[in-house]
Amino acid sequence: MNRQIRIAGIGVIVLFLILFFQLNYVQVIRAGGLDHNPLNTRLALAKFSTKRGDIVSSDGTVLAHSVPTSDDYKYLRTYPTGDLFGQITGYFSLTYGEEGAEREFDADLTGANAPLQLPHSLKDLTIPQDRSQTVTLTLSDKLQTLAQKELGNRLGSVIALNPSTGAILAMWSNPSYDPTDLASHDIATERNYWQAENADPEQPLLAGSFRQRYFPGSTFKVITSSAVFDHDPSLIDKVYPTESALPLPDTNGQVLRNFDSEACGGMLAELFRVSCNSGFGAIGLDLGATSLADEANSFGFNQTPPIDLPEAAQSYFPPASSFAQDPPGLAKSAIGQENVQAVPLEMALVAGGIAHGGVIMTPHILDDVSNSQGQVVQTYQPKPWITATSPQTASAMTELMISVVQSGTGVAARIPGVVVAGKTGTAQTGNNTIHAWFVCFAPASNPQVAVAVLVENQPEGNDAQGGTIAAPIAKAMVQAVLQGS
Fold first, then answer.
1. 241, 278, 309: which is closest to 104 by C-alpha?
2. Are 37 and 31 in contact (CB under 8 A)?
3. Angle 289-298/221-231 helices, nearest 10 degrees?
């Protein structure tokens, strides 16, 4: 009998130890993970019952705001501007979590990273402290509205930034989305909107401006030309033959054609002014894969732009080794085709880098953070991202880009009394359409704004080039910034 009692006692002790360790495992070791598990409804209740600060544009428009409710969640997130800033603010969703600025600045908006304030009266002890903070962005409602208006119902992106600080002034992509339904407290409403937007082949939830890549076409010639100055200056004065197409090496008669089979040639300055494909294909072959790949990397290709928004995409230029047996691919890559892919934000940064003497500043949307008393508690401090090229090359490239607008393919971007430096791009997509591009900055001698415009999938022809479709949009954005809009 004593033996059975001992065995039973040992069993009870073992079970007690198991229970003890399990409780400690759950309450101590796994506590953090369980607290932050998205399936934890207590966490959701806590987040949605905490007052959240506003997201505001640089010109004072409220982009995201929390209103009190009578349900268990206490606050409902609203987005007064709808889809205009949807891809910037993102959403604050019961089902799908946070996205965009809501995610990036979550700790600022809730005040989780703000210091506790000491109570000043008995009343302060009885009323919960409002720790929410307002996040003010660098983007302007007026400029964003203009970008939306200028692009119209065409697919594409418009980005304007300050090249000396990296501040994003406008960043619009069509299509966009309205975060309102994703912030609904009705799960069915959230789910239906989510499924509909994800079923859209144009992917409105995936911002084209900083999360998608496209053939950059001839805007990439800014990088190819910079590579000439940086890696082989002897090519600056080399005279390339006037021809309508470049015969490609190691092929059976394949050629790299100029737009509309126009004949062009000459030295670098002339090739750049008229955006001569045959000449730039030959320059790419003369430069070699290593120089061209190194220059692309120095401008930020194959790196993630450090913008303060989640999941920005990298632009892509193939490694130099991939061209060892593919000289035709190198010639095509020198004009921004083949496997070269660029995010519109990256091309705005390329223009901004030339404007800022070869230094690309870190792109950012945060201006400042202020507490519930309206006091500014944090201000963004501009900082460089990468040095893309030398001041000398940037100066030489500025002159080339000025010529494009004054008398080349970008004359539609001319502004009376303002010297604009720019580059057109007309990228073949492979499906009988083109992407129309334009990048620029102004004033050329003291740049205040850099712009990149992409208009997607336009019909081929003279009426759908970067200089005819994208350049006027960029012009409107530059004028608005310089006029103080």
1. 309
2. no
3. 110
Average pLDDT, the chain: 91
Length of the chain counted residue by residue: 485
- Residues 394-405 as b/e (b if ≥16 CB within 10 A, e otherwise) read bebbbebbbbbb
Active site amino acids? 218
Whole-angstrom distance between the N-terminal and C-terminal Cα of the chain? Answer: 93
**Residue 473 burial by CB count (10 A; 0-12/13-18/19+): exposed, middle or buried?**
buried
Candidate from 71-75, 287-291, 298-302, 387-391 with smallest mean pLDDT: 71-75
What are the tens digits of pLDDT across the range 423-463?
999 999 988 899 999 999 999 999 999 999 999 999 987 77
Alpha-carbon span 19 to 73, nearest angstrom: 34
Residue 18 structure tokens? 């198991």
Give 426's strand partners: 436
Which amino acid, 225? Answer: S
DSSP state, residue 456: E
Distance separating alpha carbons of residues 157 and 464, to the nearest angstrom: 16
- Distance (Å, whole) CA 313 – CA 71: 38
Q: In b/e form, how buried is each residue of 474-483, taking b as 16+ CB within 10 angstroms?
A: bbbbbbbbee
- Asked if 163 and 446 touch (Cβ cutoff 8 Å), the reply is no
Per-residue model confidence as pLDDT tens digits over 365-395: 999 999 988 999 999 999 999 999 999 999 9
Q: Quick one: what percent of the chain has pLDDT higher than 90?
A: 80
